[in-house]
């Protein structure tokens, strides 16, 4: 390693169990390469490319957010090879910067501004070659350290798996001051087989805290607040139900150590179901309707085995984000001292709100390519149809009240009303009722946030059960009457016509209920307003594929919920300016460590904020 430099990105290959994701590490004919974690063997005459998600170096991000001017790629070759040092930028998908014969030690220096991405292509000689111990090096900097903050709720096996991956990599372990697990479930993670072994492998770094369920915001805030007592620079927020690429930790810390200003560094989310699929290249908040969305909608999601750096301009662009999901996010602890932890939102929007608050305080968020983990995709969840529907709307409105620069939140009231109407047309009366509670709570002012943080989940579960909006096992589902099911409307004109038909249908009497029959049994993708709005009953498959929701039209219930949605929004529209001032004034206190300690130490239903 050249003097005065340090690795900021190791060149590595799939771990055992990650073979399905090999195209994120190396591209070559399947019989042309083999690998272990830190070496790649290329067959005689074959070529392997590291123009991959984990193999290429995201120079554009380093150029934009750090002060380094040059980057060096190094490695060892056992066997003659031709190495092409390649680059790409937004306009040009591939340029060869240098073609270098290699056998033995290899090193090449590149000016950081010469491309958005750099990578190597290795063409083996007649005897084949093995490339090992590759890395991208940058000028030395102070080593950044972190506490890892994991929030878990009855996912003990998954959580232990994350601990094992953190412990297994010695370099990762060295940069972790503490690993804090905040257990908010009723099946203790400490009782899971393998927990003690994982704790021992972390060599005294593990700190387990058991507390009442305060949601993701409460769990991650506990981690951040506890981290303030540690000798670390950052808190790494990490989900419990993920498959971690451990080198992502080192890449994020290396980047954070060299940014020109205090920066939140986020990781990407890949799909656990389709291992080469990326959820999004970055997240932003649409200020008009105040809803989160991708900075590059065409790449949300995107299969990186098909869309490569060379072929996809959107992957070569520098993306500016508003926030990063807390599936994996590195937060400077100096920032936590300045702006506090999360708002007590329980779940949904806590990460987005924190990113917006941090940016207002001068700390942007960067979602760093090449740093990622695998997580269940959102398509595998029904969070708009269960108790979480309350938090989706309540927290969206709270964040808009705090951060929107538009009069009365821009379009958030009309956009969220359209979602209420959609729920009603789809006979999802439980969701609409939960959202009614959300509107009432927002009107109550910011004091309701800590007051309701523990009980609203239970309240919403009860509400959904009373509304009959829960997943019914397949064996208990009513039979389908049969008959044609309307297809999706083609084009805007047909959509307007369909909406008129749907509106007319809402005024008709529902056919007499027969609990053993429904008009149609629909897959989840077809459970939309343009179909359900013309039916009196249906089953709609759940996101998990295990059972379905049973929906039956009720004009009286729908009418009452519709008028409540209108009336409550009218009140919110009138009171918006005053409420916005009230919520904004309350943020500093609500997010403060002192306020969170009051919640951690409050009445606990038999579970305390104790450290075993």
CATH topology of the largest domain: Spore Coat Polysaccharide Biosynthesis Protein SpsA, Chain A
CATH architecture assignment of the largest domain: Alpha-Beta Complex
Radius of gyration: 26 Å
How many individual helices? 18
Tell me, what is the CATH class of the largest domain?
Alpha Beta
Largest sheet at a glance?
8 strands, antiparallel
In helices, the fraction of residues equals 25-40%
Backbone structural class:
alpha+beta
Q: Could you give the distance between the termini?
A: 43 Å
Strand content is 25-35%
Q: Can you tell me the number of structural domains? A: 3
What would the principal axes of the Cα set say about the shape?
Answer: globular
Number of strands: 26
- Mean pLDDT over the full residue set: 94
Low-confidence segments, given as residue ranges, are 604-612
Short account of what is shown:
This protein is 33% helix and 25% strand.
Q: What does it look like?
A:
With 612 residues, the chain is an alpha+beta fold. The chain is built from 18 helices and 26 strands. The chain has three domains: 5-139, Jelly Rolls (Sandwich), CATH 2.60.120; 146-380, Spore Coat Polysaccharide Biosynthesis Protein SpsA, Chain A (Alpha-Beta Complex), CATH 3.90.550; 388-557, no CATH class. Strands 1, 2, 3, 4, 5, 6, 7 and 8 form an eight-stranded antiparallel beta sheet that branches. The longest helix has 36 residues, at 555-590. The protein is globular, with a radius of gyration of 26 Å.
